[in-house]
Structures are given as C-alpha cells and as structure tokens.
Specification:
Blueprint: H1 2-31, E1 35-41, H2 59-65, E2 69-75, H3 81-90, H4 106-109, H5 116-122, E3 126-130, E4 146-148, H6 159-167, E5 174-177, H7 185-201, E6 207-213, E7 220-223, H8 224-227, H9 256-259, H10 272-302, E8 309-315, E9 320-321, E10 327-328, H11 334-337, E11 338-339, E12 341-344, E13 353-359, H12 363-370, H13 385-388, E14 397-402, E15 405-410, E16 413-419, E17 425-432, H14 450-463
Parallel strand pairs: 1-6, 1-8, 2-13, 3-4, 3-6, 5-7
Antiparallel strand pairs: 2-11, 2-12, 8-12, 9-10, 14-15, 15-16, 16-17
Amino acid sequence: MKRLLVFTLSASILLLSCKTVKKEIAINTDKKPKNILFIAVDDLRPELNFYGANHIKSPNLDQLASESLVFNKAYCNIPVCGASRASLLTGMRPTRNRFITAHTSKDKQVPNAKSLPFLLKENGYTTISNGKIYHYNKDDVAAWDEMWQPDKLWSYALPESQEIRKNTKRGLPFEVAEVHDSVYRDGKLALKVIQDLKKLKQSNQPFFLTMGLMKPHLPFTAPKKYWDLYDRNQIELPESYIQPKTTPKQAFHRYGELRNYENIPKKGHLPDDLAKELIHGYYACVSYIDAQIGLVLDELKRLELEDDTIVVLWGDHGWNLGDHKLWCKHVTFETALRTPLIIKVPGKTKGTKTEAITEYIDIYPSLVELVGLESPNTLDGKSFVPILEGKEPQKDWAVSKFKDAVTLIKGDLFYTEWTKDDGVAYARMLFDHKTDPLELDNLAEKPAYQEKVKALALELRKKWGKDFLTK
C-alpha cells in the first residue's frame, strides 16, 4: 500500500513537473525574440500599386504589403545612399557636417555609435550582411557575423556591354539581355539569402538577415522578360515635367549621376524618347527585384519561419524619373525624400496603411522595441510601434536635408530653407500638398504666406536637432 502511495505521489509530481516544464517552454518560446529579415532597395521610389500607382508589375511586393503596415508618408533623412544608410542604421539624424554624401562611412563618421546590427549581435542575434547595406562593403564590420557581396558591383550580362564598362566611367545606362535572373547581381543575392535561410533554420539563435538589392539603381540592367512586361508606347512623361520659375534655382541640378553614363547628353534636358527609355528601364528593374524578393519570401514561408520573422522593406531614398525635369535624387522635392516603407510583424499587421509621418531614423528604435531590447541613448528617432498597436504616433513631423537645403515636413506642408554655416537662410520654398501635390507653386515668397513662413522657419530650427550646426 505504501509502495502504491509512493508511486502514485511520484507519478503526480512527475506529471505536474512535466506540465510546469511545458508551461515554461511555452513562456520561453513566447519570449524568444523575433527574427528580422531586413530588405534594403537602392533608389526605389513609392511608385507601386499599394501606393496608388497601377502600372508597375510587382506582385510579390503587393502581397507583402497586403500582410504589412504600409507607411504612406515615410521619408528618408537625406536623399543620397551612403548617408541615408548610415543614418538609418545608427538611428542618428544627419547634420550640416555629419552624414553628407554617398561616400559616408559609419566607422569614420560615428565610430563609437552602436548600430542596429551591432546591438542585435550583442544580444545574441546572428547578423548577416548581404549585398548593399552600408555604402562600403566593409563598413561597421564588428556588427556582422558574416558579410557577403557578389563578384561585381556593376554587372552587365552582354560581353559588348562589359567591354564598354571597362573602357568608360560608368558604361551604358541600360541593357536588355535574354539571360537567367541569376546572371545579374540581385539574382545572385536572392540565391545567397535563400541559402542563409536554410542554414539559419537549423539554429537556435534569432537572426538579423539582410538583403541589400542594387536595382533599380542605374544602370537599368535586367533580363529581357522584365522589359517585355511594358509597352514603351504607353509610357508617359510625368505630369510635373516642368521647372517653374517660382522655384528657387538651388532646387534643381544637372543630374550628374546620370550624365556619367554613355550616350546621355552632357548638357540640357533629355530628348523625350530617351526619357521614356529610362523610365521603361526603371520599371523593368523594379519588376526584376520584385521577383527576387518573391523567391526569398517564398523560402521564408516554405521553411515555416514567417510566423517568427519580422520583415521590413525600405528604399534608401526616392528617385526622380523626369519629375521637375530631374533625374536621380540629390534634391529635397518629395519625389526624392518620400520612400517606400512596409513592415510585416506576425500577429500585428494585416495590410493596413498609416498616414503618420515617419522618418528613417524611427526604424532603429521601432525594431529594437519589437524584439524586446532597449535602445541606446544616441538614437534621435521615435518608435512607431504605437502605430502598430492602433495608438497615436509619437510625433507628426520629419526633417530631411541635402547639402545646404533642410526640409521640414509637417501635415501637408513641405518647407525648405537653404542655409549658410551659421543657419541663416538664403533661399526658401514652401509647398502645400493639399492643393499642390506636384510641388509646382512655391508659396514661400508670396505676401499672404509670410507669417506662415516665419513660424515654419522657427519650427524647423527647433526640430533639426540640437547638434545640427555644430556636428
């Protein structure tokens, strides 16, 4: 009888113990940080179906957006790749003297700043940099467990195009080649990210896995099947294909980045046929990278990782496709500052959209909060997690800059000043997107808006950061 009692008691204790262990495992599983798939796209403007356009074919991005929170008013803090990426990954605002050009190096500009990947690595994440994440391949090397680049940064598929590239500054501005997707750089990138996912599936560690796509950056090189998705005869120049006299001359540039390529006129505006060919090439490249992103997202699902993985996709800045008769970025018009930003958080996002104004420096603190870590005190941005939870955003404005130009974005107003080193303005422009979404009517010098301009000038100085003029 005693033996039976002891056995029964032991069995009860074991059963209770097992239930307790299972409960603890469940709790630990719930607390396990989410993985992050971090997709960075170079020169991607928000000319996509889920932003109201209906002519670019991007079914995979459309599907991701339908499962995400889509930011309708996301803005980069500076419209040039190296500076934008360093700012985003450190969560630090550009100033007059920090994060300025495409050739910005995080390690040189803010060597002691704890970047997003470094913080994650420090807290047990496997961190892998694939493709173009920072501008320089070896920047912030301490933050990564692995860094990978394809063989060639600027890839052409056809031998004749490759030969031209060898003998010129940049090569041809576009190429149509009947080749497999993996011949080009971003096709190789997709295959690498897929292999990483398979490897990471076997690990008990959370991961921060990046996919740094090069297209639709110039040159517009993509397999022929993506060019064939579009009819050149149906491509039109933008409605804003004009440079109004009321806009300060400082707002325009000669799009020198594009003129570095062969067969592009060295001065003057582009012929209409060439302009449409460039737009065609841009569309083809967006469809090409959409296919590569689709391969990676399919693999994430096949490996049953999507319920444990936050997916964030962003373009490093906007891009002008003839808007204001401009090409490339490097201006503070909305076409260069507004960016695509979508985030899929398992259990939290369902394809909704937000009109909340969001800056790229907000991405770092948001991801950190989502995975349950504390943000460093160096961050300038504000988490947008309240928006994910249906609450009010923590702020309703953004500040962007390029060279002397600094822009305050608030509500429907876009206010820009060109300032000297002492902060004194020498040119201004103001657009009201409610009545002028194409930014063709500069209100800054009109008598009726002088009080508004004064108020915006004061607000700009309060919000551009305490170190703006000194660091």
